[in-house]
Design a protein that fits this description.
With 157 residues, this protein is mainly α. The protein has a single domain, classed as Arc Repressor Mutant, subunit A (Orthogonal Bundle). Helix content is 62%, strand content 10%. The chain is built from six helices and two strands. Strands 1-2 form a two-stranded antiparallel ribbon. The protein is elongated, with a radius of gyration of 20 Å.
Length: 157
């Protein structure tokens, strides 16, 4: 007997799924922007991304940081200089190789990351609470699959 595929519906429509993901992306960008509102005089969204990466890695070399952020080392250096001036990042010699410098978050930089993440988590949590338990489970499954397909490791925050 021949295999017959079921008829396509909205869940199988790549365009419909793409539109839904783009809409969710807009929502998440808005949440990210709101979570940065109180620190935006000191930190831009790209700079916050750098702080977030540093928070998860500890002491980091500039070149490694640039690679992780997929920016040119000169761009990363400008960002780091601004974050140092804002008191959020510290630069010190690498004890293993004095020719290199290591970048770390200052206590204020770590507090900034934690505050922004807490705001973001609270707002996303408020939205997720409006979903039914079945919708939440479906969302987790869909987002896990989406993230895996995109090569994004699970967030630990």
């Amino acid at each position: 007997m021949a295999h017959i595929d079921p008829p396509l519906d909205a869940t199988d429509d790549v365009d419909a799924v793409t539109r839904a993901v783009l809409t969710a992306s807009r929502l998440l960008v808005a949440i990210s922007a709101r979570s940065l509102a109180e620190v935006e005089d000191r930190v831009t969204l790209p700079q916050f991304r750098m702080l977030l990466v540093m928070s998860g890695r500890g002491a980091t070399k500039l070149v490694a940081l640039a690679e992780l952020l997929e920016v040119a080392p000169s761009t990363a250096l400008r960002m780091v200089d601004r974050l140092i001036a804002a008191g959020l990042v510290d630069r010190r010699p690498n004890p293993e190789d004095r020719r290199e410098t290591l970048l770390t978050l200052t206590p204020e930089g770590q507090r900034t990351v934690e505050t922004v993440i807490a705001r973001r988590r609270a707002e996303i949590g408020d939205i997720v609470q409006r979903l039914t338990p079945v919708q939440r489970l479906a969302l987790v499954e869909a987002l896990d699959a989406f993230n895996a397909a995109g090569g994004e490791p699970p967030a630990d925050v």
